[in-house]
Amino acid sequence: MRNQPASDVRFADELLQLALREGAEEAEVYVRGSNYLNIEVKDRQVDTLERSNSIGYSVRVFKDKRLGFSYSNNPGDIHAVARNAVEASQFTEPDEYNGLPAGSAFSEVVVYDNSVTSLNEKDAIDMVLSMERAAFMKDARIRRTRSTSGSFGIGHIRIVNSRGIDLDFPSTACSAHMIAIAEESDESQTGWEYQGSRFLKDISFEEIGRNAADRALQLLGAEKISPTKGFVLLDPSVAAEFLGILSSALSSEAVQKKKSMLAGKIGEAIISCRLNLIDSGLLHGKLGSRPSDDEGVATSQKILIDKGVLKGYLYNTYTSRKDHTISTGNAVRGGFAGLPAVGPTNLFCRGGL
Questions:
Q1: How far from each other are the two terminal CA atoms of the chain, in whole angstroms?
Q2: 312-321 pLDDT, tens per residue?
Q3: Backbone dihedral region of 71: left (phi > 0), alpha (psi from -120 to 50 degrees) or beta?
Q4: 3-state DSSP helix/strand/coil percent for the chain, to nearest 5?
Q5: According to the CATH classification, is domain 9-219 in 2.40.50.90?
């Protein structure tokens, strides 16, 4: 694989200046590119192999507190994109909280792995095939697999705005997952496993195969139990689903729109006093880590729940202004064609007494 930077410094700077010349009072250029290798195997051979290489950019402007936005994946559209963003601002309502963040220092966090950059196609295929081999070797009752796949990618983001933010960083990402199917007599059960990291060394492909097989095997002969009340030990994947639900409730955007069950509960005990909930973009190698959020604000570590007590919410620039506080570095975009929303980086629980 080869790292192909998604942004050219002169291109982003030129686009920013074009937007300002068109009449924007504040302007931001966001450029994102990626180079991915996706492999899916079935019956011990490659079923699908796809390479993708994409690049796109957007311009967000503010004029008279009105938002304008435009994007493209064609560098030749640079003049039209700048002009369209400013023209679009004429048709939106003014909002006193609109605006861009100012320049700041960026977080030091490692999100790039040269092992991904130098990975060749043959080795990548062998890694994905090893998941299926490990599952079949685990037990003769593992008869089939589904969705056995691996993804290896290199990304590049550049963010520059008229208030002094100028950020340019590459990143890598790897992930793998599979479903193993165990069969015994007339019963069939499935087990699933997933791992993801920015570092290739963190992905244990054979372990994924063994764990998926174990989960399928454990379900063979499972029966319903009678209703009972007691303690439950959650599988990590199930616990992550609960965190996903809680994550949306911790979004300041959801709170401000009265869509969060945690609205107005700062300082209140909302969960067991044994639990602390933390969001951190500073964990080396984790998929949610990065030096800044998608507005160029430095990421950080936030204690959201301390010994069961709600301490705060996640903010981007807009929602922080609305609550008269500061951004927590949690602006996220679904891609270059999306506006910043609010989302977690790496959300995790830490036990405490």
A1: 47
A2: 999 999 999 9
A3: beta
A4: 25, 35, 40
A5: no
